Amino acid sequence: MSFTVTAESIRLTDTALMCIFCCWYVRPLTCSTYSLPSIIAWRGDKEAIDSYGPAANGNAFYIVSCDIMGALGKTHFKHVVLPELPERYITALADSEEEESDDDRKPLQEPVDELTALLRKADRLHSCNGAEKAQGLNALLERKAEFDQKCQYLWRLSRAYADAHDFAVDLAEKKSCAENGKKVGEEAISFNPQCAEGHQWYAILCGLLSEYESIQNKIKNGYLFKDHLDKAIELKPEDPLSYYLLGRWCYAVSQCTWIERKIAATLFGEPPSATVQDALQNFLKVEEISPKYSKFNYVFLAKCYKDLGQRSQAQQMCDAASAMNIQTKEDEEAQKELDSFVASL
Questions:
Q1: Where would I find the beta strands (DSSP E) of 16-104?
Q2: Distance CA 328, CA 258 (A)
Q3: How far apart are CA 249 and CA 43, in angstroms?
């Protein structure tokens, strides 16, 4: 049985789901329905299509009528010849199909608990480049009484203290941020010793605090810095930040004077040991994991190559650093150090 449907018989207000068979292909079409109340959605299979062959021409389709499917089976298809639709209809059909498919693909969203919402807010503020980054500390401190036994909260609070430290102007405020951040970081590790971020940010706060400590505490914090970075890398070996920080530690140790090593040996029995080559390998690991990770990473690669007598490689790293835009406060510091370094190269 066959009939012809004209463009005028299409009603754009309905959204019935029909399954149209054309040239061996099943295509669900969400659009206006044809003015045939008997046509209902039915999803066929390739076997049913194969038994009737492809469409007779480019405008021919097989449409299943579910009214008769139950009684007569798959053998009853209505052959419909569709005219070329006006552009306004085609646009409406495409839009309708896209909207429904997007809705179909959209997963059901579960309610977000308060801790998750807070952690997401903290992550968003940390990712900011301006002074807004420092606002994360207050946002987290406001909920400390509720979540101060959650490692995921605590290591972010430690990180927020580090961010606040970087934006503080007063020296006493900077030291206070470093002290509080280190304390919170230690708490995070005590709740979950297997949290890589907990070890990573505890190490960072140890490094920040060492800037305001005595020689003895500075060296002690240096050992803590190294130990916890090693642990962070063990737990999360593909995090470029940990390798970058370890590279900085190795480079700083390689530049220690004889007297500094002697003091460390006197206080702790064995001075820290690292070479420029150790530092280079860590900075190269950063580039391997995350190419163009930071302007500072290129600066320290350049320094390592220069110290190893490889000036052409050092110049390449300077060029790479210069090519990176300045987006953060750290980038500004890196640019200053790059300008000074290039002048001595």
A1: 17-22, 25-30, 33-34, 60-64, 77-81
A2: 36
A3: 64
Domain ranges of the chain: 2-105, 114-210, 238-345
Render pLDDT for 170-222 as a digit per residue (tens, 0 to 9).
Answer: 999 999 999 999 999 999 999 999 999 999 999 999 999 999 998 889 889 99
CB burial of 99-134 (b: ≥16 within 10 Å; e: otherwise) equals ebeeeeeeeeeeeeeeeeebbeebeebbeeeeeebb
- Total length of the chain: 345
pLDDT higher than threshold 70 for residue 118: yes
Closest to 32 in 3D by CA, of 53, 8, 48, 15: 15
From residue 221, how far is each of 51, 178, 213, 214, 242 by CA, in Å? 78, 12, 9, 10, 16
Instruction: Evaluate whether 62 touches 46 at the Cβ level (below 8 Å).
Output: no
Give residue for tokens 């890589």. Answer: 196
Dihedral Cα 187, 190, 191, 197, nearest 10 deg: 80
Report how far residue 57's alpha carbon sits from residue 291's, in angstroms, rounded to the nearest whole number.
53
Instruction: Fill in the DSSP letter of residue 8.
Output: G
Residues with Cβ < 8 Å from 9, sequence gap 6 or more?
Answer: 34, 35
Is the pLDDT score of 4 beyond 80? no
From the number of C-beta atoms within 10 Å of its C-beta (0-12, 13-18, 19+), residue 189 rates as: buried
> Which of 55-59, 92-96, 180-184, 210-214 reaches the highest mean pLDDT?
180-184
Number of neighbouring beta carbons within 10 Å of residue 65: 16
Reading the block at residue 138, the tokens are 């207050």
Instruction: Match 């659009």 to its residue by tokens.
Output: 31
Identify whether the C-beta of residue 89 lies closer than 8 Å to the C-beta of residue 7: yes
Fold of 114-210: 1.25.40
3-state secondary structure of 29: strand
CATH 1.25.40: does it fit domain 238-345? yes
Asked if the domains at 114-210 and 238-345 fall in one CATH topology, the answer is yes
